[in-house]
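User: Predict the full complex structure for these chains.
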Amino acid sequence: MVLYFLTLVLFVMGVYCLIAKKNIIKKIIGLTITDYAINLFIILIGYRANGIAPILFKNMTMKELSEQGVDPLPQALVLTSIVIGLGVLSLMTAICLRLYEKYKTFDMGEINRLKG
Amino acid sequence: MIDTFLFVLLIFMIVGSAIAIETKNMLSSVISCGIVGAAVSVAFLMLGAPDIAITQVVVEVLILVILIRATITIDNTAIEVHWDTFAVVSSLIFFGLFLVFAFLAVQDLPRFGHPIMKVSQQYLETALQKTGAANVVSSVVLDFRGFDTLGEASVLFVSILGAFVILRRHGRKRRSEEDTEKVGILSEEEIREDYEEFRE
Amino acid sequence: MQTAYPLFSVLPLAAAFFNLLVTKLNKKVADYIAFVVTGTLAVMAVLTVFEAPFAYRVGGFPAPWGILLISDGLSSLTLVIINVIAFLAVIYSTKYMTMYTAKPKYYSLLLLMIAGMNGVVCTGDLFNLFVFLEVASLASYALVGFGCEHEELEASFKYLILGEVASTAILFGIAFLYSMTGTLNMPDLARQLEIVGINKAVAFVIALFIMGFGLKASTVPFHAWLPDAHPSAPAPISALLSGVLIKAIGVYAIARIMFDVVGPNAMVSTILMFLGALSMVVGVFLAVGQSDIKRMLAYHSISQMGYVMIGLGLGLNPNVPALVAAMALFGGIYHFVNHAVFKSLLFLCAGSFEFRTGTRNRYEMGGLIRKMPVTSTACSIASLSISGVPPFNGFWSKLIIIVALVQAGYYIYGGIAVLVAFVTLVSFIKLQRFVIFGQLPARFAALKESPFAMTFPLVVLAILCLGLGLAYPFLDHSVLQAARNALLDKLSYMGYILGG
Amino acid sequence: MATKPDLMMNDSQKGMTLIVKTVVRFAIGIIFMFGWYIIVYGHLTPGGGFAGGTILACGYVILTLAFGKDLALRKMSDMAASIIDNSCALLFVLIPIVGFAFGSFFLNFPPHGKPFNLVSAGLIPLYNIIIGLKVTSSLFAIFVALSIFGRFVSKLVEEAEEEE
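Assistant: Here is the predicted structure of the four-chain assembly.
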């Protein structure tokens, strides 16, 4: 339980950084931290006590795997989630560079032509 | 045993993130973020997810390189501090409430180390026979849930395409009607020319 | 149709990838590819409406192990809205997008966005829904910043940040649900949740989903990005964002999960109705003072989505009589369709005015009916429609929602709905006075009507506005009722796990 | 080996110091080999298309960092990267569509072969290779675009500030 809660704390820290910080690069870092939190949470919920990786090697029996293997589905989800995070990060960096070129600053406090 | 280890690792990650969020130096901020990522991949390795650990380490390296290369060099790495008290206080209250509810909610989840595995047990037992792949994660990613992976490849494609679109020289057509569609990697002269135009 | 169901998301994906390859050789082809593909999708969507509900197994794996695609009344109705409006937007783009550079990349992003929305609507798997939601969202972030000017990039950045917070919240919700039930398949989840019951964790998940999808649908406490993002995009994209995207990845997803997975619940109903009423009021009062036409329309989107939310919220309440709940739901879905039609029409009209006059400020225009008769007429029809003037479609759906509210005893919400309809009317009368009638500025003396490719979608949508309204008393309501029953009938939704 | 020494020695001005270049010259072959191993054995051992593709992309990134962008772009130009990216994405859509002919979208229709063999598990190794190529090309392209754009912008802004 405590582990789950700590990942949620990590998530909240990331969201705080994403929303409250003014610097654009800090915002990118916040996004990365939220990604870590959610990925770790999903892997944690799939862990089986004393589990092994869900990969069959030649010297293993099927029974061993099905009784001890950790949940493979969350791992598949996290693989997808990591790549999505990478994609979002690259798009965000591109927008940041363009914003820097246009406004000459990384400070969101000065990037305020729109009222919101 | 693993509980204690993960607990220490998570505390380490929280401290690392706090440094990454609050430090004034950009470079140390990015590097602490990278350290947190490395800790995450260690945690994946401990939790029986070597596939994810490999991917996480490699992606982490790439993220760090992109962040340092693309953003740090053009900033003077010092941040001017705007302490917006209202925003900070209101978000702290909101996040505090969120954490209280989250703390109550995680009590109802199955205990750590005892997942339900209603669907996944079948994957473990029949993946080899149904798909022929020894790596169960691979068989789930590319066969049982292949449609997700198609979506994931599209997400990567969209984001790369989006980045190229955003880095385009001109958004709207200007004086000359000729095609100014060169995108992405421009020569130095072109950007300089563009910049002169922009400054006018 | 049944065997080709995955093509709804796969065909636009393939076209988007192919488009970028082919246009390296010849740039002209992009128009035709987008036209043909969206046209095919529109025809396929209309055909799906006449099919009985079915489930499709991707990869041939039985339900909880593989991914299940589900077609029922609501999803086929939403598919029709998405693909028909996307088709019209593509026709419009062929001329409008000559203002911008990099047309092939624009079409690829547009097709990817359509693929994402279709994927969200078709799927019966929660994580698959999330992946396609990300495809659609990422494409929309890039399209909002397509003009690469100061304001557009800023709007795109804000939209991206809030959108990603929403996505992460949704993913957390999905992870919680998976942990509690051990499955991701939505019909299966519905079954497992009946066993688990509404405990604290499920309540937390519902809160996360309302926050996440509410942010995507731009209900009021989470609306800050919409008035920036929607006006910044090119006009056909604004039409798609406001008319379709916030519905497909916001309202549709929230309705599907709340009705079919979680099930009717008084608490959720109260929250949704409160958020809906708040959206209606805040959106409409912020809209009145705007001088930028597209910005004003964006605020009206928030307000009109409030009507849909309040209808859905009332339908979700298990304590009101079943007939009233069904009526509210019917009104909500009807307004869902109507709003898609008239709001995309309004945005396309605003784009047409901008294309010729070069401005979006309503105080700089005037008397345009003499120079641009088709666009102006279409704009008037849409304005009457959105403000709920009797023969048009907006009137009927608002009337049904208000009557349902009054019958259920929510007199305050009913009063608010009437008041908001009135303020909307005032706001659009102001728009008419400044843009369409009044004095024609001297510099617009040589103005011409927009080209045919841009007026044709306007005419089609205007006819739809009028047709959906005038024919209402005679309409065979089977399509809308199938959509409503899809939401009310949780048992048959759970049954899809066996079929396919 | 992926690189030719004479190409690398030509531009001694560009990139990083000689020590870095020497180390990279030895490491780069191992990196590429490891990346391909991860991709090709994805269905038998940990790894797969995404991990391996990212490793290959990191290899190109190291080349760019150590020797300057010219050499890396000679290995894979931006145009080639874009074409590989698009065509691999297209293949990844088209191969599942072939499954329609055998009954269902995304059907793993070829025979699954003997477990633990390199050629087994039907389409999974093929998907891994396609995804690996796609990820490599797209990540390399985005890295080059972002880093070059960023550096040029910074240079111009600095010059502008000096003038003022």
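Chain D touches chain A at residues 45-46, 48, 50, 115-116, 135, 139, 142, 145-146, 149-150, 153, 157 (CB under 8 Å).
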